[in-house]
Amino acid sequence: MLENILKQDKFTKEDIKFLLGLTDENDRKKLFKAAQKVKLEHIGDEVYYRGLIEQSNLCVKDCLYCGIRKSLPVERYELEFNDVVESAVFAFEQNYGSIAIQTGERQDKKFIDLIERILIEIKKRTNGKLGVTLSLGEQTYETYKRWHDAGAHRYLLRIESSSRELYYTLHPNDDLHNYDKRLQCLRDLERAGYQVGTGFLIGVPGQTLDNLANDILFLKEWDIDMVGMGPYVIQKNTPTGEVVLNQDLNTPEKIKARYDLAINMIAVARVVLKDVNIASTTALQALSDTGREDGINAGANILMPLMTLAEHRKKYQLYDDKPFSSAAELDLKIGYGKWGDSPHFANRQKNKIAY
Ligand code: 5AD
């Protein structure tokens, strides 16, 4: 059964559910092997770095699971223009190829202008050679367009869950946390010309394999170029964290199950979507010392080493025990100095012209 499914080129929802639900270690190895093969065929064997700069933990949102949600009384910080630019130039000098700028969400003019100025300066200082991914939440089309014109070319905006119902168990049901707005943003990003990334929280209370299979299908339907997803990691003093503790869902067995499921999701995303970029995310590393490598072995091809200045790292705490290490001495073939764009994006552009 497993062998036959893995031989296929196209997968039904039932196939996807079956693969996601694998728990036997030998079976999982077969899945990862198939994912590696697809990766080699469609992406190659290189892994690309995105130096991650967490510019600020200020946030207007109150997502129920998040460690920097507005209503948590954490110390807030903001990196200045020069700090971000210098970190980016440092990444460039280290031959990283690309950076990713991430923040809590803000839509005020001061912030929008600051990001635009930062992008223009980074492009100037690196002769347009440093690739830039943004992960700055929901914005208007005009803002996305301005940042794209200023030099950003990839954007990550996780949908967190493609199930509307589950989405509202993870977010307050109000204008600021609107599922349809999130979908509109993904459309706007595409229209503004970005390579578009999205992804999910894996292992949140109430989530089923059916939900996760739909998440994989969502990536396909939405023609997504890049995937960033990871296991839920508990953050104390948050509504989701309370639910997890009350339902006794934070035992070592449950945590391991979330971790394994997140690794399965990477492998299944690879075999189903084939030519997209998939990140091996920090949340994996938070749950296991071998998190990043396990993600790569399951089919991921992107690593995001942390470049945030040491003094601020502890404040960008999305969940408990978020790892702060940027050490990247891994036995991997790194695509130094290359942007490492998602081939899916180029293929998508070709198809557009062909029709
Ligand atoms: N566990 C795992 N990931 C989290 N994120 C936020 N809080 C958590 C958590 N408790 C992720 C969300 C968000 C990204 C910036 O961090 O998916 O999109």
Look at the structure and give the mean pLDDT. Answer: 94
Secondary-structure-based class equals alpha/beta
Radius of gyration: 19 Å
> What oligomeric state do the depicted chains represent?
single chain
Widest sheet: strand ordering: 1-2-3-4-5-7-9-10
Count of DSSP-assigned helices:
15
Name the bound molecules.
Answer: 5'-deoxyadenosine
Percent strand equals 5-15%
Using DSSP, what is the number of strands?
10
Spell the H/E element sequence: HHHEHEHEHEHHEEHEEHHEHHEHH
The helicity comes to 40-55%
Low-pLDDT ranges: none
Q: What characterizes the major β-sheet?
A: 8 strands, parallel, barrel
Q: Could you give the distance between the termini?
A: 37 Å
User: Which descriptor suits the 3D outline?
Assistant: globular
Tell me what the structure shows.
With about 350 residues, this protein is α/β, with parallel strands linked by helices. It has 15 helices and ten strands. It has helices spanning about 1-5, 15-20, 25-40, 80-95, 110-125, 140-150, 165-170, 180-190, 210-220, 240-245, 250-275, 280-285, 290-295, 310-315, 345-355; strands at about 50-55, 100-105, 130-135, 155, 195-200, 200, 225, 230, 275-280, 300-305. It has an eight-stranded parallel beta barrel, surrounded by five helices. The protein has a two-stranded parallel ribbon with strand order 6-8. β2 (about 100-105), α5 and β3 (about 130-135) form a beta-alpha-beta unit. α3 packs parallel to α11 (about 250-275) and α4 packs parallel to α5. The two termini are about 35 Å apart. About 45% of the residues are buried. The protein binds 5'-deoxyadenosine. 5'-deoxyadenosine binds near residues 160 and 235.
